[in-house]
Design goal:
heterodimer, A: 252 residues, mainly alpha, MetI-like fold, 10 helices, disordered N terminus, B: 387 residues, Butyryl-CoA Dehydrogenase, subunit A, domain 3, 2 domains, 79% helix, 3% strand, flat
Amino acid sequence: MIGSRSLSASLPRTGALPWLAALFVALTLFMGQSAPLFEWLLPGLDNPVYDRHSFPDLVLDHVVLVAASSLISVFIGVSAGIFATRSVGQEFKPVISAVSAIGQTFPPAAVLAVVAPLAGFGFKPALVALALYGLLPIVQNTMAGLETVPSATLEAARGMGLSKREILTRVELPLAMRVITAGIRVSVIVNIGTATIASTVGARSLGTPIISGLVSQNVAYVLQGAILVALLAIVTDLFFERLERFFSVDRN
Amino acid sequence: MKPNRVIVTLLVLALAATLLLPFANLAENRLVSGTPYRFWSALTTGQLVAALALTVSLTGMAVSWYKRPVLNGNATLVCCLCLLLLVIYAAGDFATRSLEDAGPAARVSLSSAFWAQIFCLSLMMIDVLQRMTRSIFMQVFFALFAFAAVMLLFFSGALDQLSIMREYANRQEAFAGALVQHMMLVISALGPALVIGVPLGLLALRRLRLRSGLFSTLNVFQTVPSIALFGLLVAPLSALGEAVPLFRDLGIRGIGSTPAIIALVLYALLPIARNTYAGFAQVPTAAIEAAQGMGMTPQQILWRIEVPLALPVLLSGLRIVVVQSIGLAVVAALIGAGGLGTFVFNGLGQYAIDLVLLGAIPTIILAVLADCLLQLLVSLSRRKGVT
């Protein structure tokens, strides 16, 4: 199980999610009208609000990129994790788990920069890079989650006459769900970050105003993009925290 | 005959890539797309025969793997490493031969079949290593040995005509500078991160009520995308630098290494504080009570019982932080902090893939090397803790 966030399941219930989500939506809708605020904060800028794309569009681009890549990662990652823990795929388990551990030491920005140009510039290459990198924590946690199912439970299920398929879908996956969700959470959060840098390989995202602000030395653009993407990540993380708690075995 | 299905699968994949994809690309200059060369037309006959012989023996061993697993394992490792070196050498040799009578701007770059072969061969070696030994020492030892062999090839000059090496030759000094800068960013963030993070972890241990609030606050820093955190630090720091000239003279400005280091420290706090907490929390009370019974002072208990027992967990926190910082420092190039990310983003801006690789491959190697070494350190400290 990977862990930068594995402790969070033991954290107390936070009521911040709906408020932060509302704040995020409000800021997305009204960021375009924030010129007076940024003029006051940072006097002397030619153009206090990023206006080449509307902020709702940028948020949508960002969310679509992350959601699409994460869906691919979840589909392939969970399948690979299931394959490696079945008797057919047992032989592949060591190499799959080694690759998902080693692969995660690769810097996501480096993976994006290497993979994307191979497939050209734009949305699709960024999608491929994000989906590839996002696979690793999901594979790792799917295997870890399926392995934590006690063998006594499996024997009981077999004794009840459940087929292999039923054992997987009705016993193993539900019991592993919390750990798998933790893996998806890491994957999605990393992808939100990498999607921000994806504007350097030509995929439009909330990183676009940040990069454009850094290039043209317009701090207001940087702040506008950064605030929105930071909130997006925090809201998503809190959402997954709730989801993890929902799936935790001892919730009753 | 029961085959090693992992090696067989990887061999099939590598062969398919070799047959279907181009191995190298020869172009008049950087701007035109050039002519792709297949593996068999890029290699000399001798090289092809050697590659074929190695592949055939690999197949033979993989098919009858379980007859003599140890012998096959050792021989497969040797064959894979030889084939890996042969493929890299052949690519360099192809570049040297084809550039002899080409214009000065002509370049040979590596194509997809090359990368697929390297990838599959590395996976085969990982599979064999995982089968043969559980010992992290042996695994890291072999990885370092293989890495040294590849490095030797690099420094021998055999690859100098490949476009990525020409890119390197053009920027040798800038590269060394960026590498040092990259490592300096990581190292200068480590000190403050430890000085702040370890006490925070100890605080969480002593004050249980603070714990959840502390960890969720630190988790927020981990959640915020790196470029956003850099960006959020740019504005206040540039304001600070402008308001207080002394700070500006000290290098505290909106862009540059100051916001980068601050962000790296913030990212490092959660792993360090959490692992400090977890490390000390898992020290068995029985061990502490036994030490008290032996008449040890609290000081002695801390340094001779608690710290040694917590050390492996602390060091794995350090490992997470170092690997993570090496990756985040790439992004720091966007706010002018330098480092290897400079090549990556300059390359992306100019559509120069070789320049991107010149920045990306060394950071990947740096991260994997740091991970290997710290993993070694973790298992060393664990060993010492047991005895």
